[in-house]
Records
---
Amino acid sequence: MKNKVIVRSSFKDIRNFTSIPETRKGIIAEAPETPLIANYAVNSVANFLHPPTQYLKVKQVAEITRDVRAYILEPDTTHGTAKLAYFRPGQSISITMKIGSAVVSRPYTLCSSPLRSIDDEYVIIVKKKPDGFASHYILNNWRKGTEITASSPFGTFYYQPLRDSKNIVGVCDNQGISAFLSMAEAIADESFKIDLTLIYSARKQSEAIMAERLDELAENSPNFRVIYVFSDEHVFKCERGFVTKSLIEKYAPGSKYSLFACGSQTLYNRILPQIAELKLENKFIRFGLNGQIENPAGLPDFPKDAADKTFLCKVMRNGKLIGTVACASTETLLVALEREGIEAPSLCRSGDCGFCRAKLIKGHVFIPNGIDSRRLADSSYGIIHPCCSYPMSDMTLVIN
Ligand code: FES
């Protein structure tokens, strides 16, 4: 049975409505002639903190080891960036580069203190990856004066007073050191009021990059200390082995603490079961970006029959077909798009930020367990994150 809907109104409503134009004219006539504000202060602050693009230049290069360099970046005023955006220790910037015919982006965590950005300096550390593409390009090509296009700082791997404890236990390997170095620098210059105990895991002492600087900071700040754990050698006053539950408990404060972990997938795979045994409340456990999965075909949930296949992906933007890209089932859609020179949006490349979101209008993808951060509504409407989606059929994708 249909429901009966009754709408009640009165003649007064119509009469009031007809008087609106006159009222409006009166208000306009009485208004001052001073022009409206073109730029509200809140918009200027928002643009300063989150500029869509930052144009930077390499100010200085410092060699840390043969395969690791620190790059000091400054604003490139000739391209319109007058000041660097402020950030929080633990945040990253995404750098876009044209390498041959490919257009690629990579996130790099800032390792300097945010205070240094007020003096117009960011520092990032670039480490050569054995089968890397962007890291090789940077180490071979960036020199003093190289122009760089970067995003504003992004990411949620930073201390949030409403959620986190002021006592932080950090766990990292050399892939995750930048976030903690930034925190330690900020503790030392007193712009960051927390206590950080860092457990730094490496195979050997020689692989613990930035150890000298960390030791210096620990020596000068009562709120920061660093413990080294080496799996392959005994070193005086350092731990031997791996990061375990009991090792974390040995150095964690007696009171409540937040556990921040950041590093390679090998580190995450090893420490996840140990962290679970600590039985901390979920809100006290934080992870940095995962990065791209190194061997997706080795994941237990990867569809085995798709392992050696390549599929075709039609790519559309603004209602037009902009390319057809061949994509192996073991590479992400984002990597395939970038290889073909298609500028696709991305920031974290870890399935976390949603910046790369695209609509899959035909076809299937594989998204590994545990990295799908899409909202339920997004997944039910075919929205995917190309940075962590692997093709499982020919497909049509709409990107921004
Ligand atoms: S780039 Fe962040 S979710 Fe894809």
---
Amino acid sequence: MSLKIHQFPYLSDNYGVLLHDPSSNTTACVDAGDAEAAIKALEQQNWTLDLLLITHHHADHTAGLEQIKQKTGARVIGPKAGASAAIAGIDQEVQDGDSFQLGKSEVQVIHTPGHTLDMMNYYLPQDGVLFSGDTLFTMGCGRLFEGTAANMLDSLNRLKQLPQQTTIYCSHEYTLHNGGFALSVDPDNIELQVRVAAAEELRANNLPTVPSTMAEELATNPFLRADDEAIRKTLGMEGADDLAVFTELRERRNNA
Ligand SMILES: [Zn+2]
């Protein structure tokens, strides 16, 4: 548990994260949407970047890749070119089930298609930390740009298998919007009500609502709760299967 984690905001609502293993003096950065923000965060921490981990090809995760690489010499690890647009500058392509070392910490690669087809999440089992990209958000999930609802439901079902105490870093501060939507489909969920109130207070003080834990998401995130009877009742879908409920939730969230 010696890993140090520093989250920093960039663009309008993105989060980047630096990971630092003091014992080996190894540092990684998750995503590269804004080179200046990443380099400033590295300088503030006085850490030297070794690894740049890319979750998916969207510009708000990759636009600063070449500049960060040039400036730091970091090795870039990211999705294997496949059905999504290829990402220029990747040194080590990864796919589902791969793993690599960040200092003393093992990083496991979990492919979670849905938002995009190339989406990779990075899980550090010894440290209990997941970088969920634009797949699993705090009280929400990513919009379906390339994958199907079935892809995303499968991906989220895989993430649900991680230990409940797992700390989840997602890539955007979408929590208040997500929380409002969650309440619209799960209005009587006390844990959700409490959590939305806490998130409102954090945001009123300009503090991040990210990270969260898997236990919190399991209790309050409607996209992990397609099997919940109260949500199904609110939707009028008591007899439907999980995919139909999930699809309806995702469509309603698109219009929320
Ligand atoms: Zn994205």
